[in-house]
């Protein structure tokens, strides 16, 4: 086979992943983190931006929303041309954008959908109004193969107290199943006192426990964005959900493990998406 034929064969099977999220000017989270994670795990990333943020490793100083009409225009542009297999959905700033994204997802019917419900700041403040949270639950969750809330987000979705340990995580499993997604990855990263970082993959008839040693680093910015994007990337490559989640969990653990190789900013720096390039041969 000639090099040209090889190139054509590879291009025909390129797993294309769309990320729908906000932009992080600091490059650590949001669209920027998504593109890095998708690329590092073997996918081709395209994007639809839902909001612009003035942001760095120390926090967010401003948010500039994108109109729902322009979000739809971006969605039509990428879906009409690219063979998008999987979609990762992150920050959606208001009801109109949530409804627009849901409408276009139903129109174009991509194979796999991962929803990371970005709802709560590091300080515990809600990013979405109650009406937007209800739209997220009614319009997008039923379309999702998996949603990936952390503990504060799960608590906000269910209007319950934030779980403080793994046993309390188990008590909300049945409630999370009722949110309408095919599965839920409940992330336990906020349980800082645990020596392990344990997530629960909640399926319709099973709960799988995914636990790895907790990595001690302050460079954790973009962890959730990167994990959900990696799941979408592995789904686009043909992995079944449970395998895609396990591969993504391994990827983000390594990205955290190598995060201190980099010195980015004065606050919570990003994870090291391309850690394999920093390994010693």
UniProtKB/TrEMBL annotation:
Q: Does the keyword Transferase apply?
A: yes
The answer to whether keyword Transferase applies is: yes
Q: Which superkingdom is the protein from?
A: Bacteria
Known NCBIfam families for this protein?
HMP-P_kinase
Supply the PANTHER family for this chain.
HYDROXYMETHYLPYRIMIDINE_PHOSPHOMETHYLPYRIMIDINE KINASE THI20-RELATED (PTHR20858:SF17), PHOSPHOMETHYLPYRIMIDINE KINASE (PTHR20858)
Protein name per UniProt:
hydroxymethylpyrimidine kinase
Q: Where is the Pyridoxamine kinase/Phosphomethylpyrimidine kinase domain?
A: 24-272
Q: Which UniProt keywords apply?
A: Kinase, Transferase
Alphabetically, the GO molecular function entries are: kinase activity
Q: Which SUPFAM superfamilies match?
A: Ribokinase-like
Q: Which gene encodes it?
A: thiD
Its top-level enzyme class, in one word, is transferase
From the UniProt record, give the pathway where this protein acts. Cofactor biosynthesis; thiamine diphosphate biosynthesis
Quote the EC number.
Answer: 2.7.1.49
């Amino acid at each position: 086979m000639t090099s040209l034929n090889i190139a054509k064969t590879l291009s025909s099977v390129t797993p294309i992943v769309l990320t729908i999220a906000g932009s992080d000017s600091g490059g650590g989270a949001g669209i920027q983190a998504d593109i890095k994670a998708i690329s590092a795990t073997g996918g081709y990333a395209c994007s639809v931006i839902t909001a612009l943020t003035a942001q760095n490793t120390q926090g967010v100083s401003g948010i500039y929303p994108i109109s729902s009409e322009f979000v739809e225009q971006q969605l039509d542009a990428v879906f009409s041309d690219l063979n998008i297999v999987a979609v990762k959905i992150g920050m959606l700033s208001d009801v109109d954008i949530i409804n627009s994204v849901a409408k276009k997802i139903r129109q174009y019917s991509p194979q796999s959908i991962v929803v990371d419900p970005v709802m709560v700041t590091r300080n515990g403040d809600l990013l979405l109004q109650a009406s937007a949270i209800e739209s997220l639950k009614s319009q997008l969750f039923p379309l999702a193969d998996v949603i990936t809330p952390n503990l504060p987000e799960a608590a906000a979705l269910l209007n319950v107290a934030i779980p403080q340990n793994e046993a309390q995580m188990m008590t909300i499993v049945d409630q999370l199943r009722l949110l309408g997604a095919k599965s839920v990855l409940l992330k336990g990263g906020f349980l800082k006192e645990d020596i392990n970082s344990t997530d629960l993959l909640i399926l319709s008839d099973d709960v799988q426990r995914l636990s790895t040693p907790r990595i001690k680093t302050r460079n954790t910015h973009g962890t959730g964005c990167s994990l959900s994007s990696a799941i979408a990337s592995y789904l686009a490559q043909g992995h079944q959900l449970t395998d895609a989640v396990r591969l993504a969990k391994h990827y983000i653990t390594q990205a955290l493990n190598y995060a201190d190789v980099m010195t980015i900013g004065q606050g919570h720096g990003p994870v090291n998406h391309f850690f394999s390039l920093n390994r010693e041969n």
